């Protein structure tokens, strides 16, 4: 599903974020990406949806070498890779429905198909009743669930999340994690960067630890492994 081969990323300011990283992530796996701040986790994630490009090495997503695709083809890649951010990134002047629909409208789908699909994913995240609500009318957990619905609306087979519970209280964080687990059980590969020690230790998924731009630990049923 995902493979990085000897990937190195050096930013223009000379910072070497990743050093010769090689890893494979199989279909339907749930993977936690852990490590101290500045370790290279966000760079790792950005490379997978081509927000950043590697300085050297190859990255394969669904069998396609995304380091070789043209920039104009990047939107097509992102239809198979959903992304959820810590700060939600919802458009404030759009309702929940409109925020989710926006991801489909750019693909020029028929309006009837868009409406049906948007309501399906809002139902999946238990927010069908908030379809007409604006972001400022929603709690942090509800905003995050709208963001997850938006990431899922194109039916991607990979879901990437960058600190998705970072702004949420513990109870809401668990609700969001239960949602991610349900999505994963339906066959979607989930990769999540997180500092949430309790969640990682409780859920016993694959853990990839990055330090100084290198993978230092890769365990199928791992623990967080760092002190708070």
From TrEMBL:
Domain ABC transporter: 2-227
Gene3D superfamilies: P-loop containing nucleotide triphosphate hydrolases
Keywords assigned: ATP-binding, Cell cycle, Cell division, Cell membrane, Membrane, Nucleotide-binding, Transport
UniProt keyword Transport present: yes
A GO term, aspect molecular function: ATP hydrolysis activity
GO terms classed as biological process: cell division
Membrane topology recorded in Swiss-Prot or TrEMBL: Peripheral membrane protein
Pfam families per record: ABC_tran
Lineage top rank: taxon: Bacteria
GO CC term, one of those recorded: plasma membrane
Statement: the UniProt record of this protein carries the keyword Cell division: yes
Location(s), subcellular: Cell membrane
PANTHER family the record matches: CELL DIVISION ATP-BINDING PROTEIN FTSE, IMPORT ATP-BINDING PROTEIN
Assigned protein family: Belongs to the ABC transporter superfamily.
UniProt subunit comment: Homodimer. Forms a membrane-associated complex with FtsX.
Task of the protein: Part of the ABC transporter FtsEX involved in cellular division.
Protein name per its UniProtKB record: Cell division ATP-binding protein FtsE
Gene encoding the protein: ftsE
